[in-house]
Every structure is written in structure tokens, then in C-alpha cells.
User: Fold these one by one.
Assistant:
Number 1:
Amino acid sequence: MSGATGGQSDITTSEVVTLELPDAESTRALGATLAGELRAGDLVILTGDLGAGKTTLTQGIGATLHVRGQVASPTFIVAREHPPLPRADGTSGPGLVHVDAYRLGGLSELDALDLDSSLADTVTVVEWGRGLAEALADDRLEIDLERPRGAPLFDPGVAAEEDPEAGTRKATIRAVGQRWAGVDLGALLS
Ligand SMILES: Nc1ncnc2c1ncn2[C@@H]1O[C@H](COP(=O)(O)OP(=O)(O)OP(=O)(O)O)[C@@H](O)[C@H]1O
Ligand SMILES: [Mg+2]
């Protein structure tokens, strides 16, 4: 973990934590751990190349939140709502709104999804959200997933097989805003 604190403005604090994710299960586990801290009104912005693990991380969030339906790549669906299911003790937490902003043309198309109306009552996760979804809330978790390129060719004459599963991912988690000021992400994720 590397920690850094510092305000982007008077009302904004941010802490940055980096993590190695050796496999899909650890990506899912990161989502599950973070979801233990998430509550209604929280926004998570996921950034990373195709196949970086954004949906996998969201699956971990959905599992801990205990929501209805399978969290999947919303191929033709831009936003999918997963309502909360009752837990064993009869309580239920917030639902999950899972957005894929990949095909969104800009802020007006994001606005058209009317995420504002569900934001306060759910956890909202936006894949491909960087540069767009920040407009939704001053407080948010921004998570970047980086996937290293495939191993160098052993024989330059032979084309490398690109294995979508291969390669440790690096996660960079930035907590932005007063909401996260009292949360020690470094301790949570260590
Ligand atoms: N840390 C990891 N190490 C190796 N493989 C991983 C890791 N995390 C996820 N994967 C695998 O990578 C593949 C792509 O993951 P996923 O669909 O979550 O990516 P994505 O970022 O949502 O992609 P897209 O940009 O298409 O939405 C899946 O097969 C998943 O199991
Ligand atoms: Mg995805």
C-alpha cells in the first residue's frame, strides 16, 4: 500500500491506496471488502482497459451487498439496477446500480439515465466512468485497474497468444471527498 493524503480543494480529501491483484478472485475479493464500507449514496468510478477486471470487481461488490440478479457485463444495457435482497437476519442494505458508460456519448447521455434519482438510495458503480461520472457526486471512490501487457515473445517469429485471463492487475484506489475522510482505506485493504 502507498498512502497519500492531501486536499484537492478545501472540501475534498483524498487517500490513495495501490494493490496488486494476482487473479480474478483477488479482484472480486477487493470489491467484496470495499462493499463492506459502502452505503446508500456512494459512487464508485471504475476505470481500466477492456478486460481489466471492472465487472469482476463489481461482482464482488454485489456479492457483499447481497443484491438480486447476476452482476454481468451490461453489453446492450447501459445501466442495470440490482435491488437488495434480505439478509439472513432480515435486514437489507442498499441496492446496486451498475452502469457501463463505454458507449455513452457524453454528459447529456449520462444525465438521460437519471442516475441522480437513484443515487441517494443505492450504491452506484460506473464502469468507464472517468471524465464523466465525477459530475454525479463530490464524494466518490475512483478505482483504476491496470492490466500489464502480455509477456514478451519467447520466439519473435511466433505470434503470442493473448490470454484475457493472464496477468496480475494493479488497482489504484482513490477516495475523494468528505464522505471518505474518516475511512482508513489503507487499513481496510491491508
Ligand atoms: N486480477 C486478475 N487477474 C487475472 N484475470 C483477471 C483478473 N481480474 C479479472 N480477470 C479476468 O479478466 C477477464 C475480464 O474481466 P472483466 O470482464 O471483469 O473486465 P472488464 O474490465 O469489466 O472488461 P470490459 O472493459 O469489457 O467491461 C475475466 O475473464 C476475469 O475473470
Ligand atoms: Mg465490464
Number 2:
Amino acid sequence: MTDPATPDDAFSLPFTPVGRHGDIPAGEGRTFEVGGRLVAVFFDGESYHAMDDLCPHMGASLGSGPFVDGVVTCPWHAWRFRACDGAWCDNEKLKVAVFEVRRSGDAIEVRVTPAG
Ligand code: FES
């Protein structure tokens, strides 16, 4: 079954390696440029999560914020976003894009949809 939040053509996009397992400490994120977008990738100690790096408030890098219990806190003004769906914890109508991320051997790979 197709996820209604995922455009059909998203499945034809390739996964792009961005780093190696062990590069991102648990509870932290790192920012990578993929296909012209900045993508924040977080590690919770067991699995990886990926979302748009740009905070919709004033543009801080979410990848440099702490990641706790599936939520990243923006380092500038502490807005919090859920990694599962990109929703702002204070108002779910505001969301940042989230992306598929996987481990392939030691590689961390993300599948990033084009901006816009
Ligand atoms: S820039 Fe992220 S909360 Fe203000």
C-alpha cells in the first residue's frame, strides 16, 4: 500500500550515502547536503531519522540541536520537531519535511525528495 503522504515518484528516488554508522553520536544530529537540500540526520542510539535541516522559524540548522525521545530541539529558540512526521510539537499543522533513512552495511543512506 502506498503511503498517502509519499508521492509515487518518491519511490524511484535513489538512496544517497551521507556517512558511516558511528559518525553521529546518540542524541545528536549532523547536516548533509543531498540533491541541493540540507538534510539533518539524527541517531537515537538504535536507528536514524532524517528531516529538512532548516528550522521554519528563523532558519537555524536543526541538525545541530539535541535529539531526545524522537524530538529535535532547535538550537536557537527551542522549537521542537518530531522526527516521525516533522510536526512542530506546539502546533502539528506546521511541519518540516522528513525523509527515509536507512543503514546499508556501515553506510547511512537517505532518500531525499526535491525541494518545492
Ligand atoms: S530558528 Fe528555530 S526556533 Fe527559532
